[in-house]
Amino acid sequence: MQNKTSEIENAPLGETLPEVNMKINDHTSFESEMNDKSTTLDQVNKLGNDILNDNYFNAGEVESKLNELNQNWENLGNLSNNKKQALEEEKIRQQKMEELRIEFAQLANSLMIYINDIQATSQEPVKTASVNEIIELDEEYQESLADLSNKENDLNTLSGLADEMNNMNITENTYSKLSLDDVNNAWNEMKNAINEQNNAIQAEKELQEGNENLVKEFEEAANDLLSFCDNIKKSSTNLQGEINEQISEIDNLTNELNNNKNKLESCESHNETLIEKDLVLQTDFTILELQIAYNETASYLSKTRGTLESSLLLKEGSKVTEEEIKEYQNMFQLFDKDKKGALFPYEFSGVLNALGDDLDEEEMKKVFDKYDSDKSGTLEFNEFVDFMVKRNEDSDTIEQSLESWNVIAQGNNFVTVAQMGQAGMRKDDITYLTENMPEIEGGYDYKAWVETAYN
After folding, report:
1. Count of other CB atoms within 10 angstroms of residue 428
2. Residue 345 burial by Cβ neighbours in a 10 Å radius (0-12, 13-18, 19+)
3. Residue 416 near residue 442 (C-beta atoms within 8 A)
4. What is the DSSP letter of 444?
5. Radius of gyration from C-alpha coordinates of the chain
6. Based on CB atoms within 10 Å of each CB, which residue in 65, 173, 189, 234 is the most buried?
7. Which residues is 415 bridged to in the sheet?
8. Could you read off the pLDDT of 187-208 as tens digits, one per residue?
9. What's the pTM?
10. What is the DSSP string of 170-209?
């Protein structure tokens, strides 16, 4: 009995839940053994009492032994009950520790997965091509951080679990190798990565906004230049007064163009910046087309001045009247569709059709080449005047033109698109005529058109 007492007193409760459960099983077996031994104790007490009742000569010693035996048995029972209670309490404590280990491991692992995902997202390169792209990227990134506050609450919960584990002297966790310090360090690294990514996104946003402004400034300068050139051309096609006055107006427009060359230079400066920033492809304009627009305007003014000078010389050196020069000039400008100061073959073909000359393409080409004296591939105004003078000298009158159109119109006072096509006119010429010939009931008024062409 003394050995059992010593064993119960000195036996450890167990350091893990499985050990405690094993100790509880062992103690249960011990209690079962005590129950079995209680029968033996009852027999001993009965024998002792019988001896005492028989007035045994050494009854006092027997009684003393019986009392000692019963006291030890009672002490052993109390000690067993205390041990059982201690084991049950230790089991509860170990279960609590196990729950803390599991909860800490699950939460720590979950946080590390989140932290690693955010760190990976925060390390993605921030490179976009427009303001819209960086705004979209920023929205996606901020959406990935939407759960950050909840995860911070989880981190606080993990810290509380770690405090509980420290209070219970838990130093190891078989469910996870992660410590609170590991998670805190990773969390701080993640926060730094988020700050760096947000800074990178903001820098990229500022860069793209700057790039967008550069492109916008270039396009505004380009539109300003093109509008300016267009207005110069329009002014040069609406000249009034005597030829000398028109030449003076062209000179004024030329000076205005030269004085505003800074508009082109501004475009060129903006374009160099776009090249440096690799933004050239983000604009609808090219510097080449802007340079061409400016140079073509200058060329048009030069050719128009040359035309006017030719008109003046023709007026002074030939039988052509000023009224005829103005008539030729108006017709020339009417058919100079691209405002280049010269007529291309397709534009000259429109002149012939307007005059009622029914020539096929080969015949038209022969006439064109005949008057293209400098073989430039276009008819300048002086060459056009030569053609018109020669044509008039050949007595091609308004009556002849009206007769030609009357044949095409099959005797009607109007002509239709179908009839112009049947006469062999080209599609482009028909389009031009229908856009400029007055439309009347049944078709187009060719008589009014011919009269306008001659007058």
Report:
1. 12
2. middle
3. yes
4. E
5. 55
6. 173
7. 444
8. 999 999 999 999 999 999 999 9
9. 0.55
10. ----TT-S--HHHHHHHHHHHHHHHHHHHHHHHHHHHHHH
**CA dist 247 → 137, 256, 320, 333, 381 (Å):** 60, 14, 19, 15, 14
CA gap 245, 238 in Å, rounded: 12
**pLDDT score, position 199:** 96
Task: Measure the CA angle with vertex 428, ends 422 and 431; round to 5°.
Answer: 80
Dmax (CA) for the chain in angstroms is 182
Per the structure block, which two tokens stand in for 163?
């405090």
User: Facing residues of 15 across strands?
Assistant: none
Measured between alpha carbons, how far is 306 from 310 in angstroms, rounded to an integer? Answer: 6
105-148: per-residue pLDDT in tens? 999 999 999 999 999 999 999 999 889 999 999 999 999 999 99
Q: What is the Cα–Cα distance from 256 to 254, expressed in whole angstroms?
A: 5
Q: Which residue has the tokens 């300048």?
A: 380
Measured distance CA(273)–CA(215) in Å, rounded: 9
pLDDT digits over 163-184, tens only? 999 999 888 898 999 999 999 9
- Which residue has 């950050």 as its token pair? 148
Using alpha carbons, list the distances in angstroms from residue 393 to 112, 320, 368, 402.
99, 11, 17, 18
- Strands 443-444, 439-440: pairing is antiparallel
Rounded-to-integer distance, Cα 388 and Cα 303, Å:
19
Measured distance CA(220)–CA(317) in Å, rounded: 48
User: How many whole angstroms separate alpha carbon 255 and alpha carbon 341?
Assistant: 18
φ, ψ of residue 413 in degrees (nearest 5) = -85, 0
Q: How far apart are CA 408 and CA 395, in angstroms?
A: 21
How many C-alpha atoms does 47 have within 13 Å on its Cβ side? Answer: 9
DSSP structure string for 267-334: HHHHHHHHHHTT-GGGSS--HHHHHHHHHHHHHHHHHHHHHHHHHHHHHHHSS--HHHHHHHHHHHHH
